[in-house]
Structure formats: C-alpha cells, structure tokens
Amino acid sequence: MDSTSHQSDPLRRARLRWRARRGLLENDLIFERFFSRYEHDLSDDDVGALTRLLELSDNDLMDLLLSRKEPEGDLAGPDVNRILGLLRAV
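Request: output the structure for the sequence above.
Response:
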C-alpha cells in the first residue's frame, strides 16, 4: 500500500471526491457541502471511514445520512460515527 497520505496527494483527494458522486441528488448535495467544509481537515483515518460509507448503496447511505438508520456491524465504530456526524451536520 502506498504510504502517501490523503492530504499530501491532490490526486487522492480528487479521486475521493469523484467516488463520492452518487446517483441520488440528495446524497450529492450533502457530500458537496461536506467536502467544501472538511476536505482539507480529513485525516487518513477519516478517509478510511468515509470510504467504507461510500461502499454502501445510495439508498442505504441516504438512510444513514438522514438519521433514518444508525450504523450496524462493521460500520458501528467510532471512526465511521465521527464522519457520519460531520456529514449529518452540513
């Protein structure tokens, strides 16, 4: 695995933004506001948690973003909860 951090590599930041583009407009709007506010403050751990959230389907992700559901199983950790809290706050 490459040891370059997310913050030191503009290409990695661009890829993360691209990966966050979703099929549901509501999700896109939340992620756009999130990146506008937090992109340059994200740690590599934050990026890892965000990547795990982005692996969800659009509808499952929306349920989490809108607090219709809470993270379960492997997603129910402090790292994901932190990023989810930031996403919900934007």
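Residues 25-38 form the longest helix (14 residues).
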